[in-house]
């Protein structure tokens, strides 16, 4: 099996991570594209003796760490042709949050993350604890949940409330979601893709975003269907079935970027 064939199943999930890391689909996808260009240009430099997914994320992190340090365009890629417009420094994801995303969202072990970011396992554990502590002090938000499965909706509601956020409503259809969003504007939306009346959570979110801006986390059992690299697509995405830690990390990261861009 070729290297490309080995890496292909992992690309949707690298896109998910890159978007969560950068808080933006365009920038996240640009880093993924630069990673693939680097691999194509020098396949012999792909990490040997490790799982292909681990090697893919290792190349990604090498590019991320070497190109996101300046507040301005960074030119990367084998031919120097790929320019990624950088967010301001306040929007850059700090190392503790990177460690949390890699463990909670992507499911890597502490040892895997230590390899990916070139640190000791003890240091990674300390970073994750630091990120979790930061979550506790995060600004509280009003959250709209769009989910038609009662048990899943209750589980999400519990997680959201345990984090100290307020649940404004649980909507089960597109129409319900839009009505509830207009009645009490949420600071965050968590949306399932397929809703009770065969309406779409994506369409519901588009309707809401047509009225006001709000960070959105999509929840789906088939993330690869939404992570093709085309636009528009979700920036934050949780896979069903999910772990509580995954939802917690995604909520925190979405609000992190929302707070970073809020007027002072």
UniProtKB/TrEMBL annotation:
The modification 4-aspartylphosphate is found at residue 192. It comes from the Bacteria. Pfam families: PhyR_sigma-like, PhyR_sigma2, Response_reg. The keyword Phosphoprotein applies. Residues 142-255 form the Response regulatory domain. Signal peptide: none annotated. Keywords: Phosphoprotein. One of its GO terms (biological process) is phosphorelay signal transduction system. InterPro entries: CheY-like_superfamily (IPR011006), PhyR_sigma2 (IPR053866), PhyR_sigma4 (IPR053867), Sig_resp-reg_PhyR (IPR014605), Sig_transdc_resp-reg_receiver (IPR001789). NCBIfam families: PRK09191.1. This is CheY-like chemotaxis protein. It comes from Sphingobium wenxiniae (strain DSM 21828 / CGMCC 1.7748 / JZ-1).
């Amino acid at each position: 099996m070729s290297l490309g064939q080995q890496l292909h199943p992992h690309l949707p999930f690298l896109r998910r991570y890159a978007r969560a890391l950068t808080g933006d689909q365009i920038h996240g996808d640009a880093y993924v594209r630069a990673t693939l260009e680097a691999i194509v240009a020098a396949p012999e430099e792909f990490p040997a003796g490790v799982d292909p997914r681990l090697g893919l994320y290792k190349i990604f992190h090498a590019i991320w760490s070497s190109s996101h340090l300046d507040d301005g365009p960074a030119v990367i890629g084998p031919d120097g042709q790929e320019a990624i417009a950088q967010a301001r420094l306040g929007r850059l994801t700090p190392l503790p949050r990177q460690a949390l995303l890699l463990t909670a969202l992507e499911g890597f072990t502490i040892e895997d993350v230590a390899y990916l970011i070139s640190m000791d396992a003890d240091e990674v554990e300390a970073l994750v604890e630091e990120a979790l502590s930061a979550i506790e002090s995060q600004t509280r938000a009003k959250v709209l949940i769009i989910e038609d499965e009662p048990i899943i909706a209750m589980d999400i509601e519990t997680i959201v409330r345990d984090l100290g956020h307020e649940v404004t409503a649980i909507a089960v259809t597109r129409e319900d979601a839009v009505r509830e969003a207009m009645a009490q504007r949420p600071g965050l939306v968590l949306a399932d893709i397929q809703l009770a009346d065969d309406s779409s959570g994506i369409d519901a979110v588009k309707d809401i975003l047509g009225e006001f801006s709000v960070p959105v986390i999509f929840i789906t059992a088939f993330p690869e269907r939404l992570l093709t690299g085309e636009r528009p697509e979700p920036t934050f995405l949780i896979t069903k079935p999910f772990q509580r830690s995954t939802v917690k990390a995604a909520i925190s990261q979405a609000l992190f970027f929302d707070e970073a861009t809020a007027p002072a």
